[in-house]
Amino acid sequence: MRNILFVCLTTISFSLFGKELVVENEKIHAVCSFEQVDYFTTFSPQGEFLWEVPFAAKIVSWKKEEGLLVVLSKARNGLSYYLSSIDPMEGKIVWEKAILAPTPTTNLPMASD
After folding, report:
1. What is the rounded distance in angstroms from the CA atom of residue 6 to the CA atom of residue 44?
2. Which of 4, 13, 51, 59 would be a feasible disulfide site paired with 38, CB 3.0-4.6 Å?
3. What are the tens digits of pLDDT across the range 47-59?
4. SS3 breakdown of the chain: % helix, strand, coil, rounded to 5?
5. pLDDT digits (tens, 9 = 90+) for 25-80
6. What domains does the chain contain, in order, with CATH numbers?
7. Among 59, 55, 58, which Cα is nearest to 22's?
8. What is the pTM of this model?
9. What contacts 30, CB < 8 A, 6 or more positions away?
């Protein structure tokens, strides 16, 4: 594995070819998307692998909030979303909630032109 060296005093965000990278004082978070699976991966500032969480759903966005990493992902079939919370120290999912897409009904009003 290549040795990656980052020295940062503040959080910096990058968008690289559809993958998101956030550099913090003590961690580097990377979201990598592949055809069948997405990975939320964390490294040390020296490039040492710390942990990785695979997602069967496509990661849409994420944010660090109140000491947790909150991840929004969308099922690859588009029928549901998932809201997940990851412990950034352990790389373990603390909780996950499914948000199911509503079932279409025939009673929806039609848009007028």
Report:
1. 9
2. 59
3. 999 999 999 999 9
4. 0, 55, 45
5. 789 999 988 889 999 999 998 999 999 999 999 999 999 889 999 999 999 998 99
6. 12-100 (2.40.10.480)
7. 59
8. 0.71
9. 19, 20, 21, 22, 39, 40, 41, 42, 43
Distances (CA, A) of 1 to 33, 48, 67, 72, 113: 19, 9, 29, 29, 58
- Which residues on neighbouring strands pair with residue 38, listed in sequence order? 33, 55
Angstrom distance (rounded) from CA 29 to CA 23: 6
Which position has the token pair 């998101």? 20
Cα distances from 106 to residues 42, 64, 99, 103, in angstroms, run 46, 40, 22, 10
Closest CA to 58 of 42, 41, 82, 91: 82
